[in-house]
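Table S4 entry, Olfactory receptor.
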Amino acid sequence: MVAGSPVLNQSGPPEFVFRAFTTVPEFQALLFLLFLLLYLMILCGNTAIVWAVCTHSSLRTPMYFFLSNLSFLEICYTSVVVPLMLSNIWGFQKPIPLAGCGAQMFFFVTLGSTDCFLLAVMAYDRYVAICHPLHYTLIMTQKLCIQMVAGALGLALFLSLQLTSLIFTLPFCGHLREINHFLCDVPPVLRLACADIRVHQAVLYVVGILVLTVPFLLICVSYAFITSAILRIRSGEGRRRAFSTCSSHLTVVLLQYGCCSLVYLRPRSSTSEDEDRQIALVYTFVTPLLNPLIYTLRNKDVKDALRHAIISKAASDTN
């Protein structure tokens, strides 16, 4: 049990408590402020992208439609984890009931999986734009874009529901169990089960392959065609702009898929709970923060839209 956690009656359904990052008050305050600042930056940056795409007609294209959906996912994704994490860092280690842990896992896996599928959809969008520019508007219709986003969400919901419901049929020995993590993620919760989890581990690998490996391979195939098409562009400026657009997406892809694969696809014998928690910080904070930074700092259209919005807002306030 974590120092400072409440002494509870050992009857009733299981509850979980997250292991503290540190018990030193000064470090707790520092971590709280750091994670709070990162969270606020994630919210502001991704909200700015959603707002810019929704309010500026020049950004109403498939690429920015997918980008705004990705930003909205990042907001929801971090909000499922960070507020509870901050409350546990700042004060008393509050137990989370079995149902609450299951709900957090379900939404975390659903949103994270949708994120991975959407990155693959965005790679397909770049493939069509660069390899078939004359047919881009005919292929990437508004209906198809909506269907692909809905399909990504629907598949993620299905896989997450199956995985979460399977895990929470397991017995958890004792009343209060400590999770060596800052959220109810699949691997640390599985470690607390007092039953044979080989089947559950196999299901986790299958879901991991469907969510991580398959989309990543599709992204690699898309970028193989994209690279070939870019190298055939005669204009040096044209090649530079095409590579610049794709490199932003690739940066997010490599970080997201790389970190998630280390947590979910490594053999259980080679995994470390402390390492998993550290890696999880990357895809909980760094990737959602990189998304608005990369796409705003390196994208002229988004920067122009935000600049125009700020100038218009300032002008309206002075009138």
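The first helix runs from residue 25 to 55.
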